């Protein structure tokens, strides 16, 4: 293909401009190109969907399986600073040239079929992972499940971490509607794991109607623990005296339990020892999930962008100890329940630094400002709302105002957290 770009950035620029719709639901086009590419996995595939907790669950699975000596492929999204973050082989981001070669294969196979940026890049990553001679592949689902491009792959084990209200324009406005969409990654005769403590009936009904092997938290697997350690109990396997995952936060044992339930299903094909589980949980690393940065003032990075995730973030704040004032750097997509996020967080924040984001579908700082006023957020000597044109500018302002006993919480869209990560990177280099 003589007209193909010869750099990764060239490819990504091309893909961003090519398809009229950013999100174009339906699997027919992706499935047709997948068949032409001959994507086939000779190893077990674990697929992880859900409203919140997907990234954490994938990271724990990857870390444990790497500790056990397996060759592990991971597809996760979105990325913070580099597109390469989306595909990892043996814990290392895939190199530019591997992406370029895979993009060229998809381009040749698609012929006249139009693909969105997400569909094209998903096929390329699924293809390069299929070709990498791996022992296990972990695929993170994007939006929803049933009509997500990743769902053209049949998983040996499918996990739904949690079901809550998000992406209402595409998935519906109730947990029952969204539960049905999430359950679309389940397959007949295969393990279907749900870690949501109160799963929607629609998810249960769908799993039963297709004959999936449904494993529910609280019924088929659970955990208990004290301040020092915790225990997992599955259908046939127990894991005792485990250390807490290095990922902080209130829901991480639910996510860890889902990961261990998946490994229980695969225990004959991918045996994992107790020490490998312990090491994997302790060593797991995932940016932007209640990530507390070293130094003063305390800086917390968290991609909480819906009310369910914001409630967890607020709960985590309560467990952190005293901070005199908390500054928020907050930016969001316009289609999110911004009012719901504010409702969870407003009692925890003294000074709001709200920001525009570099995407057309982002809420403006002025729109978020109006929602804060509507929610009753005060503006007085100890409370404020300031508007900024970028996360970097909002963070610089918060940093200039915060004392060493204060806290800066950077949350909302991935783009908010990514902007501050970039600012911190240039600050320290």
Summarize the entry for a quick read.
By secondary structure, the chain is of the alpha/beta class. 39% of the residues lie in helices and 17% in strands.
| Helical fraction | 25-40%
Total strands: 17
Mean pLDDT level: 94
**At the third CATH level, what is the topology name of the largest domain?**
UDP-N-acetylmuramoyl-L-alanine:D-glutamate ligase
Task: Walk me through this protein's architecture.
It contains 15 helices and 17 strands. The chain has helices spanning 8-18, 28-37, 54-67, 96-110, 117-130, 168-171, 175-182, 201-210, 252-265, 274-283, 307-318, 338-345, 365-374, 391-401, 414-428, and strands at residues 45-49, 72-75, 87-89, 92-93, 136-140, 157-160, 191-194, 213-216, 222-225, 230-233, 238-242, 291-293, 298-302, 326-331, 351-355, 384-388, 407-412. It has an 8-stranded mixed β-sheet, with helices on both faces. By secondary structure, it is an alpha/beta fold. Helix 2 (28-37) runs parallel beside helix 5 and helix 3 (54-67) packs across helix 10 (274-283). The chain has 2 domains: 8-283, 3-Layer(aba) Sandwich (UDP-N-acetylmuramoyl-L-alanine:D-glutamate ligase); 291-428, Alpha-Beta Complex (Protein-Tyrosine Phosphatase, Chain A), CATH 3.90.190. The model has no long low-confidence stretch (mean pLDDT 94).
